[in-house]
Specification:
homotetramer; 464 residues; alpha/beta; Rossmann fold; 2 domains; seven-stranded parallel sheet; three-stranded antiparallel sheet; 18 helices; 14% strand
Chain lengths: 464, 464, 464, 464
């Protein structure tokens, strides 16, 4: 891969900064945020291949350099050793340029702006929701007055081709219905729905389709945002990212995935099971191709066994029928519209939904935190869901996040314990993920990063 | 395939008609044009599959019915037994609706409008060019004041997958450079560049990319316009269609194809070799993947042998390098821009290019007309090119057009004769097409529709 | 007034012409249409003063020259000795440029285009309406899909300041309600409503307000279109102009005026009284300031006496209340909307309204034609209205149109005769106009161009 | 004047607020800001008359009430006893609604937002400029990438009709050249240029003309923003308002006025005379009709006598020639463009211009502050200009601002003293203003609010 130096001028709302802001930006970008900023920008710039996603090497990252220039006219970035493929005839591809400035906006600018604002408070539930609104507003992701049409698609990045094709087909059917897409902005089930929707929109002559990718610093550097993403938003951590999804989306489609997808499912069930959210319409569909039916059977069984029928009522499973998924999604969106209209609620942000502090606070998956998770049966189901969510979150971290991988390398697998029956079901589910090769891209050599303390487990010796 | 009845209201400039116009339209659509109109609309409506192009059956055509309704408010179409796949939740897909009304506009409305205009005259060279301008203007395809950026892509519809991928890759590189695409609007090399450009445009955040498909009644019913086409234009016959390409385009890329592609190449060379066009810049690139290099070697050889080095100077061959093709195309476009600017010429229509009457008059490939083609060596090369073009045109007709196929079935293959050396080269070229399976989609059972009268030919017995 | 030479390039839909069209345009503009074309363009170019309307002198017209240049790129106009005030720093004011090309479009281009179209037929009622649609469509004045909001304002050009202020105030109130304005495009009651609406629109932040001026060659040269007019349309003669008003407008407001206004009133009453238009909603309001109340009392009396109460039901008189006028107008527009919606009728053109041939055929006010007008009482009232309209039309011509003035100078005043009672009322009305100084701008020296044969008339001697 | 209750929903960037922001807004609006907020909104709502500007009475203000409602959907205002003339058929006029929300944005929302931002610092020169940028950016008044075209027009509100007509004519000529207008947003010379430009823009078919009114709380309640203003910005005090003018504008036109205009002239001269601004192009034109020539002669003399020829070089005086003013303005704008382009400077904000702290700090015109102003001759001229500016500022306050009027009522006229020659010239200038009736609208009964300590003054006794 060849490299090149280039200067680019601001986008994404950074066209208008005071001299002080630019100066702080410049300083900040050289300081503590520098490495993260560089990583994220390089991730964006290496996503340019049409047919494949090649991530960058450490070597590249060392060579790559980025400098924030201060002009009276605004901010300019000077990139050194940027991947040449991000340019066309000496000019950076517009979509990538926008994504680069989204990184600057969210990683560097926003961070220090939030710090300077005494009203921003991530340490309370209400403050957290307000801060998320701030970030989304600053990214111009909130559009008042527009009819609800945002579909959040969740699912794995390491999925087989036939599942990818299915996500694309569903996206196509959603796009034909004028629906926009939000995903986690990587590959697999995060890319397929966008690609499909792009074709659907194009056939319906919709030229302003939105393909929103919401990511977080711990993930973006590993998973390049796919190039269809035309609105890239980087939330501070996984909890804020998950909240951004549910506040922004009007309907939710979950494709097969691994532990990350399970985390998302438990997250949303935990919220929906809270008594205050009982009556809020929240369309939630699990779907996959025929061949993946067993995946959702497994998940459904796990939910039935751990959280019970009340939880099962919160979602609908549709197998191998993209048109039915699209129709159900659209009907769900219409119900949301009606409900918010009746309640004089905003279309652009789901203020009504109650999210407990437990779901908002950053969960740091240390061995200690993982070990002391309360996974006993004698607690309200929305709390059990919350804790199961954390367990899955820890496993995701141990699988793919830099920090988690290091922890596990140092201290061995996480220990998770709790109610015997729940442990047994959890163990079975994780085992199924392993055998379905849903844990990591390099599935054949997967070594589990967790150990379920469950006397009945047949697989225990294998996980050590 | 399920069917459905539906009513749709006017688009494509047919929103505003006088009562008389609607009444004539309605009458006309029931009269002589009815069958053609039906066929074309059905062709449009059966192009909705994402992954494959299924053409319709005779049976379907019989069931399908279309009626023009006259309202004070405008024109409405009533479709009976339309393919259900053309609808989403009871509403016709916008892109298809626009294409349907483009058919109505060009096949029914325009035809009778041109008849009523005493100034339209298809029987002179100048009149013909003016009429083509009329048709393109009526289709809103001419946009004054826009910088030149239209790339015409020619090539076969029956091409192997790796050639298709190559056309897509070239289209992607053109799209990244902000160039728009014009093709013959079917599959293969007519679809690939559009699909690639769509992705390229999307990455550059160009939301108003143009994907123009120019077709003609004899072809559209057999080759559904692909759904990316957002401007469908139906010219009266193949000669007008070819002229529309060269008047509208600013740069020309030719991919591998069969006889049809050879016809296009001879057509454009015949024009460029005319002394009056000597100084007009006209970027013309032949390109294909590595594996198809031999195809253009063959063509190049044929041109060298029959028309000589002057003809060879008119084009450039680039093998297996999409980026180089895109760059050369863009440079060509800039040269065209400069030239027209200097000469106070229009950007939107190539008035300067001289096209002889010979290239404009409809050539009807009867056995008699084919037999009496002058393919002798003792004529100006631009006339020889013109006659060779007609020979290829006849073979295309005998291969895939309804009328030609019937003629050949009745009277046997066409006879083509002329200068011994030219005949021998023509024979060799055609033979190569046959052996490269470039003659028809069902290549293995191809029975030639022509006979080259060439004493040296080894292949002659095979062609009988 | 200083003069200047300038070249301007095409607008108003003339950007895209075939070479043949430009060539015919160029020829035509030098031929029979030359004088008329020049006059109209000069009229447009002399309307640039902010505070006053200065018409041009014969001397200026002689010096002024206009040439249509043919470029491959399109059409260009070369103006010699154009009024310098039409330019700002060497560039023609955009609004004037657009108006100049509207003149070219309607006077030169359209004329010859209509001639070349065998389907255009001004000699039948239906053909006439279709031709009017053609002209309006060509001028892009028809906009399908827009909600009805066009208010036609009629009234005199030679009105006192307080009446002018009143028309402005009414226009302001209409503009505040988002209504657009159509007038005859000169000064007085044709300018006031536009100026008022401009301010109203600006306060409502409506930036695309339409100020349509519909004129005809016999009038435009004498009455410069005021500079607010952003859509100038020139109909072939007074009858087509009147029909264009009623087909295009959704609501009608009549301000005080002279014989011309009376002509308009009789014209519309004649149409509305036709049995076929009985149920068509057609909002028609007569309004003026307190001081002008007597004007409409006089008109109302005349209608009562000649056409009777059925005619009086067709309109509403509102004195000195601009807000009430605006409200009634808007309610009328809403009724029209409902009615057309229910009847699947177009919003952009009133196809439903039946207009008799009598109202469409050009009435040439020769002495003979005026003398033989049937103004007897024993005919259907809609026919009587039609004939009274013609009588007024003749008087307008004798007052202000070049042809009429010459006729009267040669043969003396027109003679009008008929039913004794009607003649007496007509006589009284005309006398009132004379005494109210509504006949001509130079009111004090007015010499009537007509003679009402009415034995009871006290004023007869005076009119000779 | 009748009154009415109404609810209106947010505009001006307040469509998207967090629940916390709305809640703070609601609280704030009831608290300390309530009276000011009410006053300003009422000022906006009473500016609806076309022909005249009626300010509101104390009585009205008491009846009038305004409440900020908090909805999940956003913010809503509930107005009680609003002037009925601000509504059309029950809906508030869009332009007024926008202005009302601009008041809310700048008076209530912005204030508390700035307070919460630890980076905003009004106590340093750089901080002040950054804060002004913040306010303008928040009002969306900064548009990066647009060519310079903003003309600041200064001049009196209490001017005779012929001067008003002149400002309108100049505005018309500026508008014809595509220039936008910034004024202080009241009547007189603040309204005329906008009204003229509106007509000029309309003739040039410019539909997005900008008419920016920059005001401050101490003035807006007394001077309603005129209804043409389509961007209303309220700066915290007179110094910030003056800085906003010079940072935003590209060219400056000064019409005749009174002490306020003199203050503006001294302000800008003080800045331009600072050595660091020596080379910055800053087009500054003083202009008025023939009859007002003496006004600028007087001012020019005063500047010559006090600040000298260096100061006189900073401006150009053009008498009675609107076209020359417009041309000079446009040339000035082009020079600014060139200069900023060359220096890579922003077009949207004049960062380069150095403004001393002395011009930024709020000057509170107490008797003590006025008395101790250093008006001696032995100081750099840019400092003398700064102090003279303060003297004029105090007189404006004593004339028309609530606080100043009270001070003077209590303690008698301000005392101004200094260099004998300067005092004498100041005295003469002020006297001229009094005799030209430029001090107050009610000019005949003007009682001076100042006393120039100048032994030579003949007028001294009169000012007591």
């Amino acid at each position: 891969m060849s490299h090149i130096d280039i200067e680019i001028t601001a986008e994404s709302g950074l066209e208008l900064l005071t001299n002080d802001e630019i100066s702080r930006l410049s300083e900040h970008s050289k300081g503590g945020e520098y490495e993260l900023f560089k990583k994220c920008v390089l991730a964006v710039l290496t996503s340019t291949q049409v047919t494949d996603e090649i991530s960058f090497h450490e070597e590249q990252l060392k060579l790559f350099d980025i400098e924030v220039l201060q002009l009276n006219k605004g901010v300019k970035l000077k990139l050194k050793n940027a991947p040449a493929a991000s340019l066309v005839d000496g000019k950076m591809i517009q979509g990538l340029k926008e994504q680069v400035f989204s990184v600057l906006r969210d990683i560097v600018f926003l961070k220090q702006e939030l710090e300077s604002n005494s009203r921003i408070d991530f340490n309370s539930s209400n403050g957290c929701t307000n801060a998320i609104f701030h970030i989304l507003r600053n990214a111009k992701a909130l559009r008042p007055g527009c009819d609800p049409n945002m579909v959040v698609c969740w699912g794995g990045h390491a999925i087989p081709e036939f599942e990818y094709q299915y996500t694309k087909e569903v996206g196509y059917r959603l796009g034909l219905r004028g629906l926009d897409i939000i995903t986690g902005c990587g590959i697999g089930a995060m890319k397929g729905p966008m690609k499909g929707a792009l074709i659907g929109h194009s056939k319906q002559r919709i030229s302003n389709g939105r393909y929103i990718g919401i990511t977080e610093p711990g993930i973006i550097a590993a998973e390049s945002p796919n190039p269809i993403v035309n609105e890239l938003i980087i939330m501070p951590d996984i909890e804020k990212r998950l909240e951004a999804f549910v506040r922004l989306g009007h309907s939710f489609v979950v494709f097969p995935g691994g532990v990350g997808t399970a985390e998302e499912i438990l997250y949303i069930l935990g919220i929906l099971l809270h008594p205050r959210n009982k009556n809020t319409p929240f369309p939630l569909i699990f779907t996959g191709p025929k061949e993946s039916a067993s995946y959702f059977e497994r998940i459904d069984q796990f939910i039935a066994d751990t959280l019970g029928p009340e939880a099962q009522e919160k979602y609908q499973i549709i197998i191998d029928d993209p048109v039915a998924v699209a129709r159900a999604t659209q009907q769900g969106v219409l119900k949301v519209r009606e409900y918010r209209k009746k309640n004089h609620d905003a279309y652009h942000f789901n203020w009504q939904l109650h999210i407990q502090w437990d779901f908002q606070e950053e969960f740091v998956p240390t061995h200690q935190n993982m070990a002391k998770l309360n996974l006993e049966a004698d607690q309200p189901i929305h709390l059990l869901a919350a804790n199961l969510r954390k367990a899955f979150s820890g496993i995701v971290s141990g699988n793919v996040k830099e920090a988690g991988i290091k922890e596990v390398a140092k201290h061995g697998p996480y220990t998770i314990s709790g109610d015997v029956k729940i442990m047994s079901q959890l163990d079975a589910l994780l085992e199924a993920f392993v055998s379905q090769k849903r844990m990591k891209l390099d599935a054949d050599n997967y070594v589990p990063c967790y150990r379920v303390i469950n006397p009945q487990s047949k697989s225990e010796p294998a996980t050590v």
